[in-house]
Amino acid sequence: MKFPDLTLALLSALLIFLRSTTADVGNLLQHAYCGSTGTFTANSTYDLNLQTLLTNLTTSATNSSNFGFAKSSFGSIPNEIFGLVLCRGDVNSSFCSFCLSQATQQIQNLCPYYKEATIYYEVCLLRFSNQDFLSTTDNSELQYIKWNNRKVTGSQTLFDSYLNYLMNTTADYAAFNSSKKFGAAQLNLYNAFHETYGLVQCTPDMSSLDCAYCLKNLIGEMPKYFSGKIGGRILGVRCNMRYEQNLFYSGVSLLSLTPPAENAPALALAPAPAPAHQGPELHQKMQGTIILCSNQRLSIGSGQGISELKNEVIILAKLRHKNLVNLLGFCLEENEKMLVYELLPNNSLDKFLSDPQKSEQLDWRKRYQIIEGIARGLLYLHEESQIKIIHRDLKTSNILLDENMLPKISDFGFAKLFVLDKSCTTTSRIVGTNGYIAPECLMSGSVSAKSDIFSYGIIVLEILTGRSITDFHGSGSAPNLISFVWKKWSNGRAVRVIDRRLGDTYPINEVLRCMHIALLCVQTDPSKRPDVASVVLMLSSYSMDLPRPSNPAFFMEGSTTTTTNGGAPTNTSADALREQYHKQNKMRCKELSINNVTITEMDPR
Question: What are the tens digits of pLDDT across the range 48-97?
């Protein structure tokens, strides 16, 4: 067939374009890492699995619904391979497919027969490995950092502040407003500065908070490498960022920004002047109003890790209840890591119980309000929220009190998320605080909602008696708080353990009913403890008969054990307690939690 001249001209132009595109993609290769987990031979099972995986990843990523992203595994141990690909959010599926095809070929040329490799192109990346890296969103390894050595004209400090505004704003957009987890923005600068363009991206499978955390970490590295420079980029497998003074991405900017004036009432958090335990106040200025808030600051040597703060942010972002602390914001900069809460001026419950003067403010009405409020907060965590959460570190110091003495559960660093129809999990290490840890956690690592119920029972006993778990030293007739209350209860002298600071004005039947409920909560066998819905019903319905509690956990007749830091038995009595537990409790966990962010290090706080 003879083509018209115009058609031939168009075909020639198309061929030239394709050749130039191929060359451009080759020139846009940024970096490649060849792994250290071993090699394979040609035509082996691993080789065949790798070819299948790479083909599947490219096919899946170029499906329009996947936003240029795919992750998968193929094969079985020892030839199982894990892989991930991601195309930049501004390129179309055709160019994405072309880039990934080039990456697939080039990574095998640059890293022949390596079982693990990563390659970064300008608009796509590819990684495969015989190690399962898909189960984590960690971005700290395999980063590629590059910058333009040219410096801006004018104040570098001012430019850096503008750049920080550009990248943080773009990161917030990508994390919280884009299903692609992609953002591209233009910052309109004047005077001595040129317009500056920024781009950020996370893999679309990341949660909004994980994406924000990943990008903020990259932005936190910028001053170290990019101060005053006109361009720079940090590429990672899970998230990446780049800025330039020329337009380097396709299409229009998703955001058009102007730097806030220096005297504008932009959001600013004053630096915290004191450690978290001193309960400092921050003044948050926004649009002419001042909001009082408090902060929890991560201090060196505190035993708290960044993962705990991250876990707490993830948990609290999903929750809203009047009996849970309200998270206002967080800071995860390199040298400042803190959580910012609503101001709770009465501090924590333990401060009231341990202070002779403050405890006089806790009349029975306030104490009952606290007991009931904690139960309702737990009910929300265990049964009413969209996700089931086990707190795992309930204690009086984690119950904060607002100006009306309304209790709010705080400190979710050790919390664990559960699928709603799962009831139990096991963990290899114990978390929590001595004296509040349920026996099944201490002895076999079993964790369930009943673990929180046990801790709640201890808190109620402390409220009723005015005694802390740290008041007992593991010897004498009452080696711990549970034994102290149980012996009086069993002998019909329960009134003698009630806090004398309550005077004679409290309703005795109501107080004793709360004590009865608390003893039900601290029973050794988790299956005998009431669930939180039953606890709330017991507190509100006096027509409901209460079963007689069985011997509680850690009940000791006399001085047969010692304790450490708060009443929990030490290893001197661990064998006896373990034997007692296994005799009385046959509960075993059948389902495991799917959450991977919880911390399971033993570090009493």
Answer: 999 999 999 999 999 878 889 999 999 999 999 999 999 999 999 999 99
Model pLDDT, residue 52 = 97
Q: What is the pLDDT of residue 340?
A: 77
- Provide the whole-model pTM: 0.49
Q: What are residue 339's DSSP bridge partners?
A: 296, 330
CA nearest to 93, candidates 118, 141, 59, 129: 59
The H or E element that residue 86 is part of is strand 81-87
Identify each DSSP E strand in 302-459 by its residue range.
Answer: 327-332, 337-342, 388-390, 399-401, 407-409, 416-418, 424-426, 446-448
Provide Rg for the chain, Cα atoms. Answer: 30
Residue among 211, 199, 193 nearest 258 (CA): 193
424-455, pLDDT tens digit by residue? 554 444 566 777 888 887 776 677 889 999 99
Q: Is 393 a catalytic residue?
A: yes
pLDDT of residue 505: 80
- Single-letter residue type at 7: T
Residues of the chain with pLDDT under 70: 1-27, 190-192, 260-312, 314-318, 332-337, 386, 413-432, 444-445, 473-478, 554-605
CATH superfamily for 24-129 is Gnk2 domain, C-X8-C-X2-C motif (3.30.430.20)
Are the C-beta atoms of residues 80 and 96 closer than 8 Å to each other?
Answer: no
Domain 349-584 superfamily per CATH: Transferase(Phosphotransferase) domain 1 (1.10.510.10)
* pLDDT at res. 416: 58
C-alpha pair distances (Å), 17 with each of 11, 14, 25, 585: 10, 5, 12, 73
> Which residue in 90, 393, 452, 499 is the catalytic one?
393
Q: Residue 336: its pLDDT value, please? A: 63
145-257 CATH pick, 3.30.565.10, 1.20.5.320, 3.30.430.20, 3.40.50.2300: 3.30.430.20
Say how far apart CA 602 and CA 400 lie, in whole Å. 23
Q: What is the pLDDT of residue 319?
A: 76
Matching fold, domains 24-129 and 145-257: yes
| Beta pairing partners, 424 | 448
Q: Hunting for tokens 């070819």 — which residue is that?
A: 51
pLDDT of residue 312: 66
What ranges do the domains of the chain cover? 24-129, 145-257, 275-342, 349-584
**Long-range contacts from 590-595, C-beta under 8 angstroms, 24+ separation:** 590/424, 591/419, 591/422, 591/423, 591/424, 591/425, 592/422, 592/425, 592/426, 593/416, 593/417, 593/418, 593/419, 593/422, 593/425, 594/417, 594/419, 595/416, 595/417, 595/418
* pLDDT number for residue 543: 79
Chain-centroid distance of CA 106 in Å reads 37
Pairing relationship of beta strands 255-257 and 182-187 according to DSSP bridges: parallel
Question: Cα–Cα distances in Å, from 163 out to 157, 160, 224, 238?
Answer: 10, 5, 14, 22
What is the C-alpha separation between 431 and 441, in angstroms, rounded?
Answer: 8
Contact 246, 236 (CB under 8 A): no
CA atoms within 13 Å, Cβ hemisphere of 525: 10
